[in-house]
Amino acid sequence: VEDATSYGEDLIEKLKAENVDLKKVDVAVCVPFIHMAALKVIFLLRGVGVGAQNMHFAESGAYTGEISPAMLQDMGIEYVIIGHSERRMYFGETDEECAKKLKAAHAHKIRPILCVGESLSQREAKEHFDTVRRQLTGCFEGIGREDAAGTVIAYEPVWAIGTGETATSQQANEMASFIRSVVEDLYGTD
After folding, report:
1. What's the rounded Cα separation, in Å, for the pair 144 and 139?
2. What pLDDT digit, counting tens, does each position of 44-87 carry?
3. Is 156 a catalytic residue?
4. How far is CA 160 from the centre of its chain?
5. Given 35, 56, 84, 108, which residue is catalytic?
6. DSSP string for residues in the chain
């Protein structure tokens, strides 16, 4: 996003053109840190949430360059992406770190968007369900039922990012059903 104001206004116009009823659906845009404040102002009265693409789990400390959950809360940021495949791949983010981030986000009233998904090699080896189950159980370690219910889970088939491949609706629905079953195993049917 080169110009946050133009981007924000363009997005609002696209939502209007698509007849998105912002009273019936939650819409959030997770943007680079440097654009969050500007977009927060643009979207404030229009019903579009602004989220961060990442955050550190610590409240404070010597974590130069990191954004704390308290900083996001002070800015009025409503969402944060946790466990994105690029964070896992390039920065070695683990399920344990994701669990800490989930706890921190909920403690600061920021709604986490937890990304889970498998690589191409995991899908081809038929390990995709095991991979997603491991991610979910690891990331939800120590997370209570109420916080789990307040977490958005995003299926991110890593094999389809930037490859020209896309998950079919059948594959996405199959994984969504599987994710629901894992969450049910962890927290019950409620």
Report:
1. 12
2. 878 899 999 999 999 888 999 899 999 999 999 999 999 999 99
3. yes
4. 17
5. 84
6. ---HHHHHHHHHHHHHHTT--TTTS-EEEEE-HHHHHHHHHHHGGGTEEEEES---S-SSSS-TT---HHHHHHHT--EEEES-HHHHHHH---HHHHHHHHHHHHHTT-EEEEEE---HHHHHTT-HHHHHHHHHHHHTTT--HHHHHT-EEEE--GGGSSSS----HHHHHHHHHHHHHHHHHHH---
CB 114 within 8 A of CB 86: no
Rg from Cα positions in the chain = 17
- d(Cα 134, Cα 116) in Å, to the nearest integer? 10
Residue 32: Cβ within 10 Å count = 12
95-151 residue pLDDT tens? 999 999 999 999 999 999 999 999 989 999 999 999 999 999 999 999 999 999 999
Distance CA 143, CA 153 (A): 14
